[in-house]
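Weekly structure sync, notes
Attendees: PL (lead), two postdocs, one rotation student
Agenda item 3: pending single-chain targets
PL asked that the sequence for the first pending target be pasted directly into the notes so everyone works from the same version. It is reproduced below exactly as submitted, 233 residues in total.
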Amino acid sequence: IVLPFVACLFHDLNTMTGFFIHIMPPLVTYTFMWHSAEIKETWPSLFDLSHLSDMHYFPTNGSIFVVPGTELDSIVGNAIVLYLAWWMPYVIFMLLGGLDLPKKFQADGVTPANPKFDTVFHSTMRGGPCITIGKIFRGRSKKDSLQQMEENSFDLIDFFIYMGFHMLSAILAVYVIGYPCFISQNFHLFMLIVITVLAVTRGAQRYTYYSTRMYSRALRRQFAYVLDSSKES
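Predicted structure, written out during the meeting:
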């Protein structure tokens, strides 16, 4: 599933938090990049945007790919450093105990752990990536993956596969999506519209499911004996 966190579910705090965390930076960037004149006219003494015309997306030495921590005169260099400033502490936190925080059972697999906390990794894995990772990379059955999702029991291999793809996707996005947004206002606006439409569509589908199919299935389960008896008669 592409961008699983992109959905407008107003009752779901986790989904809405993830949605706004990811949509606000490109939205704010669009405003400053393409409407700087209006901003300076409205707040002439509040924002100094004179540096916008001097920004370079790629390093001035002509290279495209950068070593993390270098080429900080470019947007690419700073974007990678900023991403790693989140990625590395998060990995360390998860290795030092974060991976076990939401587990329903202790190490023996029997004693209840009574978890009080959740993580972005566990929340995302419960949304379906656990099944995909298990099927493609781990040779794991869907039944075992569903049990892991139910118990919040993911191992280090699952975690590093997830974080590896997260890093790859983020860095690819800097090149494949970020640069076109930097040079084209129309593309930047197009991406914002796509994300918004995707979020609204997914939210509408989920609420449609809640108001129709979910209750229909619940009623069928409750009155299964009535339906079965009517068929027999």
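Discussion points:
- The two ends are 45 Å apart (CA to CA).
- The chain has a mean pLDDT of 87.
Action: rotation student to compare against the earlier draft before next sync.
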